[in-house]
Amino acid sequence: MTPARADDLYRAQxxxxxxxxxxxxxxxxxxxxxxxxxxxxxxxxxxxxxxxxFKSRAADFVTAFDYHDQMSGKPKRDEQGTRDRPYDLIVDxxxxxxxxxxxxxxxxPWLSHRPTLGIIVAMVAAARSFIVTADxxxxxxxxxxxxxxxxxxxxxxxxxxxxxxxxxxxxxxxxMTAPVETLAPLVAAQGPEAILIGRLAWDDDDLGxxxxxxxxxxxxxxxxxxxxxxxxxxxxxxxxxxxxxxxxNGDPG
Length: 253
What we know:
The protein is of the alpha+beta class. About 30% of the residues lie in helices and about 25% in strands. It contains seven helices and nine strands, in the order E-H-H-E-E-H-E-E-H-E-H-H-E-E-E-H. The strands form two sheets. Strands 4, 5, 6, 7, 8 and 9 form a six-stranded mixed beta sheet that branches. A hairpin with a 4-residue loop joins strand 7 (about 195-205) and strand 8.
């Protein structure tokens, strides 16, 4: 995964329906929150009420935008045309305005080197469990989700391959207690600068994933949990939490 360039940090995207202005403005607001988190590394801005006045005029921070048709190559249906087609709205923001806004929130851009993050995460559902890998077919959905989450948070990630997982033979239950040194061989050959470890277990009562994450940094172990979320949200929170720690913005909530 290619490291994010500085100009990419000020770009965000979200899914919208059609290209009309009302949905575009909603998309601008969502992208503004994402880009503030991405630039600063401060996941605590997610859902922060202080952002609402700025999100209501998010267009003031935008320098350019474009659309990517999610159904490119597929015919338009009857009279709908482009009105109801799903698009990725890609938005570029003004660097100086974003930096100034972060300053007003007591934060600053994280423009120094961002460590490459090795990710070792187990998925557990009923009697089935597996480690998410870079090349395993059973990991396809989770691998894509992790990479999208990393891009959204401005991080570069590395995943273990199937051969490394088979060689080390670590069970999912051991992930949250085993020393990082024991698990590091899973990704060591790729040269990560920090290692994020996680476990996502499906819970029927919550109708979602119960998740645990840990990251050893600054001489101590940082841990955070959540429950009842999709695995897409779990990866956003896991990788975003790691970014928050590594950027010096404190422990994830």
